[in-house]
Amino acid sequence: MENEEGALDVSVTKKFGQKRCSPRLRQQIKRPYYGPPCRSKTQTTDLLSSNNTLSPSPSSSSNDNNNKDIISQQQQQTLLFDFSYVPHTRSHKARVKKTLSIFNNYFLHFSNSNNNNQHPLSQEEEEEEHNRPDFKAVSKMIECNQLLFPTKRFGHLPGIDVGYQLYSRAEMVALGLHTHWHSPIDYMPPSYNITVSECWPAEGVSAGFVVYKYLLKRLEGQPKLTSNQVQCSNGRSRVPAKAPRLVCLDISEGQEDVHIPAVNTVDDATITGFTYTKYNQILSNLKVPRNANGCDCKGGYCKNPKTCSCARLNGVDFPYVRSNGGRLIEAKDVVFECGPNCGCGPGCINRISQQGIKYQLEVFRTRDRGWAVKTKDFIPSGAPVCEYIGELRRTNELDNVAENDYIFEIDCWQTIKEIGGRERRLGDVSLGRRDEKEIENSMPMPISMPMPEPEFCIDAGRIGNVARFINHSCEPNLFVQCVLSSHHDLRLARILLFASDDIAPMEELTYDYGYALDSVVDKNGKVRMVPCHCGTSECRKRLY
Ligand SMILES: C[S@@+](CC[C@H](N)C(=O)[O-])C[C@H]1O[C@@H](n2cnc3c(N)ncnc32)[C@H](O)[C@@H]1O
Predict the structure, then answer these.
(1) What is the complex's ipTM, to 2 decimals?
(2) pLDDT per residue over 97-138, tens digit each?
């Protein structure tokens, strides 16, 4: 939000290419977080100390007429001064992270409850402020005392660094960076002008508005900006990056809807030794389960979760909302999507993971982790990023497993049942017993069948897609979601990677490989140890 000279562009509240965004954050929570603590108004604002995992209730007070009053009361609170610069600690950053998770969680739930309204909202009603899911999310956070900085502050906000990219006013309100919900421009009375050195109208007039810029004084002790923190409000970096060497224009060779270039600024390596494919390859010795029965929904789209048999498998709800092209509301042990025998069509809300890659991704070379993948687009939390694609194999038929870095064991059943030391991958996800029963009932094998180890895996060593280049991080921004669409055999579930946070453009994509330490042995039975170079504050130091 501040440029190299310290001039603040008041257009910071403008959209940044897409609808919503989040700052670049390093989180403290290892697993995707989907259950915000909803606390009473009397509690303190220490979000991190709360252990409650109450899910937001989309219906409660979402249309409260006094929402606006709550916000305007807040706007009138006394200003707090804080001119001392406090270096950001992990706990400050974790609070920011958690606040944005809570906002996203409410946003997705309210979007879902709008979709599921018995009487769908008209276009005009949808545009009314009190019906907007972002407005409802912020109102709910105010009601539950979940804003990060609920009092208007002047000066430093611990945990929020210069260089954060914020795309929506609602997120800024959630953090306490912006207090005027109704107006895109927040302000302080003139008596608070001590931090402004200069102010001038920018050249040109945009859509009838003059854009003002402000040169601000740096707080004492505030570190200098680094070039990678500098962003313009139009999304382009102000400091030109060193021209990368393009080693491949499109690793998918036209198979994906978007080109996936590969660049290397580190060494002479090129992309070799694998063939790109968009679909899992099934080896001839493997029997593909028959297609599951589908739902009877008509008219191209599944609309009613009570009558759609696929929605019933997901706990009588659709797992996705339509916002930003489709987002998973919350992580689940398994998502049942509509498939080939369903009455709906390809545009159905319950087929979001079947649409292929839609974000601009780039493969790039790192100094210590080989190739990696970054996004050039903003990716909202809950959005599907890509599927892990390769050859479907039996795990007991793999040769040289220890030498193959590209094997993904399909361990959905084991993680649901917490078999073999596999903890539930989704951490904070709450799953009712009923859902687990539904999953078991829909499986084409007896539930008593002992499956201590995954029977099948996806081997992307020779054949695969862009997911094979995504590295591990102990603080990832993607999470693994098992999805069943054509059949209902969990042993052969599809493996999808979804965004666990809002992901800013140019951020590396990572997920937690989830290896148990000492679980990988070489062909002589000796434990293999690989150091982790994810570089995050939560790093467990070893990949396995
Ligand atoms: C699925 S591949 C990921 C792409 C890989 N970097 C490449 O160049 O093709 C997994 C391998 O990448 C490397 N890797 C991934 N994440 C890593 C990390 N955090 N630290 C060290 N090495 C990592 C390890 O060699 C690992 O076995």
Answers:
(1) 1.00
(2) 889 888 988 888 888 776 666 566 667 776 677 778 888 999
Q: What is the pTM of this model?
A: 0.72
Please give the helix or strand (H or E) that residue 262 lies within, else none.
strand 262-264
Report yes or no: 468 and 474 within 8 Å, Cβ to Cβ: no
Distance CA 394, CA 392 (A): 7
300 within ligand 1 shell (Cβ under 6 A): no
Q: Is 369 in the pocket of ligand 1 (CB under 6 A)?
A: yes
Strand partners, 295: none
Fold of 245-511: Beta-clip-like (2.170.270)
Any atom of ligand 1 within 6 Å of the Cβ of 406 = yes
Asked whether the beta carbons of 460 and 390 are under 8 A apart, the reply is yes
pLDDT at position 357:
97
Residue 85: pLDDT above 90?
Answer: no
In the reported structure, the alpha carbon of residue 297 is separated from the centroid of ligand 1 by a whole-number distance in angstroms of: 43
Distance (angstroms) between ligand 1 centre and the Cα of 388 equals 15
Angle between helices 90-115 and 133-143 (to 10 degrees): 130
Residues of CATH 2.170.270.10 domain(s) within the chain?
245-511
